[in-house]
Amino acid sequence: MGVRDFNILEMGVLNTDEARELFMSQIGNQVDVEGYENVVERLLRTCRGYPHVIVSTGNSLKEKDLTSWAKFAHDLEKPIASQVGGVYRHNYSIIDKSYKFLEVVEKRIFLLLACLFPLGSSVSIESLTRYGIGLNLFPRIDKLYEAMELSDKWANELVLSSMLLKGDFIGDVKIHDFVRAFAILFAAEAERHNFLVDIVPHMLDDETFKEYTAISLMSADDCYRLSGVKAGKLQILKLRGDLSRSFTDSFFEEMPNLEVLDLSNMNFQPSLPESMRKLKKLRTLCMVDCKLEDIKLIGELVNLLVLSLRGSFVEELPHEIGNLCELRLLDLNGCRSNNMPLIPFGVLGRLSSLEGLYMLTKEPFLQTRFSDEGTSATENNKLPYLNVLEIGVPTIERKLFDCPSVRNLDKFKVFVGSNYWIRVDVSYMHFCRVVGLDCIDDVGGVLENTDLKALSKRADWFGIRKCNKFENIVPQLDQDGFKYLRFLCVNECDDIECIVNGCKMNDLIAFPRLRSLRLYNLKKLKIVCDGKAPNLVSLVGPKMFCSTSDALPQPQSFFDGQIIFPSLEQFELKKCHNIEKLWSKEVFGFQNLKNLDIENCGNLSSVGSPRIFSSLVRLESLCIRHCLGMCEVVTVDESEEAEDLKRGAQINIFSQLKYLTLGSLSNLHSFYGAATLSSTRRRRATLCLPSLEKLSVVDCPKIEHFWLGFFVAPELQDLDLDDCPLMLHFLIEEEDVINLPSLQTVHIRNCPNMKSISPGCLTAPNLKEVKLRECNSMQCFLEKSNHNGCTELPSLEKVHIRKCPNIKSFSGGRLLAPKLTHMLYDETEYLSAGDKGLE
Q: Which residues does the UniProt record annotate as the domain Disease resistance protein At4g27190-like leucine-rich repeats (predicted)?
């Protein structure tokens, strides 16, 4: 059991050893200190083997002293609430103590805010932050960006303590259903925070809602039942409604202390309920995916700090919004209108306390989202505290970007041109400093004349697509080398010839933090760095060597010389047909590369030599598709590499590779080795893929086998072979047993010449599913059995054989498959359930 990666979803019970191992994985070496051992035994007895309880206990006590441990154990042994019994009595006690160990009261409330969302939902930390601002959870924070950072810190700490779980997306969290239930119970008993979530009591009276401080209802029917209820202590109201129904004017009449109001999917046409005027204490107002028309009334809620109209239909912000002089955050992301000006002139300038402005949309960027004067530098200069900006505009406007408030942003997402990045490529979403440019003519000249270039220098995500009149990224777009950049995507820029022009630079360290590099559809691109640069330090690192105009006739390497990306983890190269070779004989500085994805690079004949791959020590995923010139993935030069293929040699250059995909490679002959090497010599070597979990070979019409020699892949789970008409066997070793202990599924389709998966004997104790389709020449899936004439597949459950007319038996010997419950075969002329191998 991998306890260090334990992800608690179910309440299974662990035995004593497993419970202790899980607990120790949470608290480290602390128990080695004298005095802790006895307390550990007491704690584990109380936990009773429940994983979530053990994890919560361990994380709550991490780095606490012995006195705190003893007190925690003593408290657990005390009597607890009478209404909680059985198994849940102990869970309650543990979560209670873990909750109380959250020493910061605001952090406890932050956790409670996650309870307001539906069961199992992924909750954005951004939403929790906005609620927290409304409840004044950040009294000592001066900046909006600092509140966001503190929320991220709290969320990470709560995940580490197992009070929260990681969400479905980066920047999201989840809460376990029982933690959610008990947190609500604790809050009511100990801190007088009474929550009503999910459902309204069937019987309503004036006393029902009197004590509630927070209500969250996701059912439209329940929402409208709240109209006019007396909820004098209510601070948070979260409702999801029905666009076909409207609110009554008196809905909020008896909610005078409301501080956070979140309304989604509701119809507020023609106007907002009159009773909203009475919400004088309201600090956070979110109206998401709503139909809005007349919203002038919002201008009277002068204590608002957060206003979000995200995804709502709204024609135009009224001038009255300018009365919100305390407003810190205005979110108009995804707002829809009939192409009318969304922000009239003078409104933004009056929001003098505004720190965060969000104005992204998947609709085409329109200049009319502002009035003509609404984006003037004069107006922007009236926002001295602006430090978070998300905006999309059709052109680079000097008046929009040339102002101090824009130059000093802490967090920004700025898109200029079309809305491609927002519609199609959402990789930017969880970066903090983003610049995306699309369909801009003379991008270098335009950047040079605006302060958008200053933002680009500080970006951690930079995307550029269909932009012309620039030949390189560095130094043309940034002479300083993008010091903070972690993600770079260059797409369909027809004029770009290289990433770095070494001839035009002095001392420089470029891309020191770059983790992901995507190069798509670059017609002229041949090399990363072009021209000699004697003072160039590197793309990071010493001894930079670049290509020159005196290049030798052999194919030029894309990463020529010692071009180094020390932090690069992901590299994608697609539709770059001028690249013939990725690396020369040596490769330096790619020690962190994990994912390599190559697609539609027609002149690329291979990826590299064994020496190249042995330098990619962390490579986990290799995907190569639609490369017409690809003859082999690993090129073996006989003069240099033949020694690796001597008798008994082990080829172990893919120590971390987990996923290997070869697809639509019309000229691929083999995965490893050159045609000049004899098959006899290759059969004497062993290809080791110790970490490989999934192997897929699809639409490779010239490949006859994956490997000729011995094959070791102890972790291989899924094997997929499709559209390989010349493949005779996946492996061709005849002498020894092929042991694939982790193999679970084998899918083979449209391999008309395949005779069997291997002429040797296969041992696969965990094989569960085999699917064979359109394998015309196959007579037997497994040719050989073990020494006693049996083929043992103890885990096999499902076999599907279709359109394999010549198959006569599943295995060469009697098949022993006690778990086989599902067998389907059709269009097989000779096969029947009674045939040999299917008994």
A: 569-718
In this structure, are residues 582 and 604 in contact, taking their beta carbons and an 8 Å threshold?
yes
**Closest by CA position to 562, among listed 529, 534, 596:** 529
Task: Report which DSSP code applies to 158.
Answer: H
Direct distance between the N- and C-terminal alpha carbons of the chain, in angstroms, rounded to an integer: 36
Render pLDDT for 557-612 as a digit per residue (tens, 0 to 9).
Answer: 777 554 557 789 999 999 999 898 888 766 777 889 999 999 999 999 999 888 88
The values of phi and psi at residue 803, to 5°, are 55, 45
Per-residue b or e along 350-367, where b marks 16 or more CB atoms closer than 10 Å to that residue's CB = bbeebbbbbbbbebebbe
List all residues 6 or more positions away from 123 whose beta carbon is below 8 Å from its beta carbon: 114, 117, 167, 172, 173, 174, 175
3-state secondary structure at position 621: strand
Average pLDDT of 805-833?
A: 79
CA pair distance 437, 418, nearest whole angstrom: 8
| CA–CA gap between residue 146 and residue 432 (Å, rounded) | 13
Backbone angles phi, psi at 686, to 5 degrees: -115, 120
Domain residue spans of the chain? 1-101, 717-839
Q: Which of 321, 212, 225 is nearest to 258 (CA)?
A: 212
Question: Are the beta carbons of 299 and 276 closer than 8 angstroms?
Answer: no
- Predicted TM-score (pTM) above 0.85: no
Q: Is 544 helix (H, G, I), strand (E, B) or coil?
A: coil
For residue 598, the cross-strand partners are 573, 624
CA distance 604 to 589: 22
Amino acid at 571: F
Task: Report whether 749 contacts 773 (CB < 8 A).
Answer: yes
Tokens 């004088």, residue located: 280
Q: What is the pLDDT confidence band of residue 321, given thresholds at 50, 70 and 90?
A: very high
> Which residue is it, tokens 């160039």?
536
Tokens of 116: 């307001």
Quickly count: other Cβ atoms within 10 Å of residue 810's Cβ.
27
Tokens at 24, concatenated:
């120790």
H helices of 210-284, in order, are: 220-224
And the tokens for 414? 């700025």
Residues forming a β-bridge with 771? 747, 800
